[in-house]
Amino acid sequence: xxxxxxxITGGARGIGLGIAVCLARKxxxxxIADRDGAAARTAAEQFGGLGxxxxxxxxxxxxxxxxxxxxxxxxxxxxxxxxxxxPFVDVMExxxxxxxxxxxxxxxGAFHCTQLVAREMLAxxxxxxxxxxxxxxxxxxxxxxxxxAASKAGLHMLMKSFAIxxxxxxxxxxxxxxxxxxxxxxxxxWEKPENAxxxxxxxxxxxxxxxxxxxxxxxxxxxxxxxYINGVGLIVDGGHQAVCA
Length: 245
Hints:
Layout: E1 5-9, H1 14-25, E2 29-34, H2 37-45, E3 50-53, H3 59-73, E4 78-81, H4 96-123, E5 129-133, H5 146-166, E6 172-178, H6 187-190, H7 193-202, H8 211-221, E7 233-236
């Protein structure tokens, strides 16, 4: 049985939970971090793991997450920076506080988590794996995703910076950019007939993605076999971006 320990932020539901499921299948010990502490604990119970209430924008809470993980399991091998928000507000109408909050959660939060977790990996000479969940919004956006796209594009470059800094120590940093994914929160939208038809038309794979599709990609990047994959962004969208507009 693997003794590897994986932290997934925003892991109580949706894509984060799908990632946790896939890593648990690899016999990893799972730590679910989420602003909703009760949901984190409930999600972690199915894996015999640890659930921790954590707001990634609060560096002290991230430090506590790291310490609780070390106290429980003695090590951290994998970090998945999945926590994120997308308010969907037109960029011309957006309040500055909304813009700031999106960057704080999606970008600065990942900085806190990566830096503090990486320091623990370095202190224990662990050749760890860090994955950043970005988005197709790294390359394309809309008027209602200005804050989200800016944060995700920044997250992609933050990943590259950490990949350069940590690569010499055997710690890899990569990103996974999900396409259209069916979750409990998006189901109401994507199961509408017109939107389901759009998926069939625009996604060569012929279906919408699932949280476990993203989880499988993460499992690849955190595997022992992926030790020479560093600083790259893997698009997991069923071929959507390959289709001409």
